[in-house]
Each structure stands twice: as structure tokens, then as C-alpha cells.
Amino acid sequence: MTVTLNHFSAAFVFALFASIVFGITHRDTAREMIRYGLYCFAMFLGGTLVAGWAMWVLRR
Amino acid sequence: MANSTAGKARAGAGEPVNMMAIVAPAIGWLIPGAGHAIQKRWIRGALLLISISTLFVLGLLMQGRIYKANGGDILDMLGFVGDVGAGSLYIVTLARDWGQGAIAFATADYGTKFMIVAGLLNFIAVADAYHIAIGKKQ
After folding, report:
1. Which of A15, B46, B53, B86 lies 20 to 30 Å from A58 when distance is taken between CA atoms?
2. pLDDT tens across B55-74, in order?
3. Partner residue opposite A24 with nearest CB, options B48, B58, B117
4. Are the Cβ atoms of A18 and B121 closer than 8 angstroms?
5. What ipTM is given for this predicted complex?
6. With contact defined as beta carbons under 8 Å apart, do A40 and A14 qualify?
């Protein structure tokens, strides 16, 4: 069985699970964990999108 | 200086030995999230288990390559260190001879990175389980 993910879905899956672990391990209370997890998720995906557009601009 | 060293030694000897501080990281490395579950952090343990295992298994299914113990290229050695963090997932993969990698798939390299990151994330989870065990974190 082989799973094929495109670039964005791979980045999405990576960001989702890494953010969950970061949220749990880097904060103390449940509320802070959720907030930090969401922050990491946004930064991971946002960073991917910004880097993608930056490469598109550089290529032109 | 000698006095301060002796003072540190005395303080270290006076600390109670916490069995959980040894067991939780060990079991947490072997089974991702188990270090939290054994300390009754059920939800955190379950989330860690799901996150780390899914990332590792997805990496395998994407035809990622598993690193074996080696003394060659520095990146290969670092890859091994990352992979070995996944504990039993790594051991089973190695035992079943999975994770040989397939260059026919463009996403196979993503799979390799997924497995390395899963192992590294488990190292963080192990450190967190240790901090809970010694009372540094709730």
C-alpha cells in the first residue's frame, strides 16, 4: 500500500501533528496548549505558503 | 570552590529517588505517549500516540527510507538518531525489513523526513514525561 500526498497535503499533515506535540510539550495548562498548538500550526502552514510565494516571485 | 562542590554533592545525595523519573521516559520512548499515560495524563498520552504514530506510519506508506546504525555520512548518522527516537515503531520497522525507500515515488523523500520528525517529536515527548515525573510540570 502506498500513500501519495501532494506538497500541500504533506505540509498540512506535518503541521497538524507537529503542532499537537509542540502544544502538549511546550505549555502547562490545557488552554495554553491549545493556543500554542494553533499558533504553531498557523506558523507552519503560513511559513510554507510564504516560502512558496517567495520562490514563485524569485523565479520570475 | 571545594566547598561549593561538596555542597552540590550533598544536595544531590539528599534528593529522593523517583522511580517514575526513570520508568516514564523509558516507556515513553518505547511507546509514544505511554510516558504520559502511565502518569495518568490520558488525553495527552493518546494525542501523542496518535500524532507520532500517524506521522511515522504515513512516512512508511509514502515509501520513506529508514536509517540503520551506521558510521558513514554525518547526515545518515543524524537520520538514524532521528529514526531511533520512534522506539518500538522503529524496532518493528527494522525487524520486518520495511522502510527500504522507493526512488520511483517523488514523495518518498517526504516519507523519510516524516519518520525522522516522528522520532524527534517522540524525544520531546519523552523529555516532557520526565519533567512531569520530577514535578517540574503538571
Report:
1. A15
2. 999 999 999 999 999 888 99
3. B48
4. yes
5. 0.92
6. no
